[in-house]
Amino acid sequence: MRVGRWWVGPPWEEPPADAVAVVIDPGRAFGTGAHATTRLCLELLQEVEPTSLLDVGCGSGVLSVAAAKLGFVPVNAVDIDAVALETTRVNADANGVAVEVGTELRPSRLGVMNIALDVVERMLPELPVERTITSGYLERDEPQVDGWHALKRRVRDGWAADLLARV
Question: Strand 6-9 and strand 2-3: pairing?
Answer without folding.
Answer: antiparallel
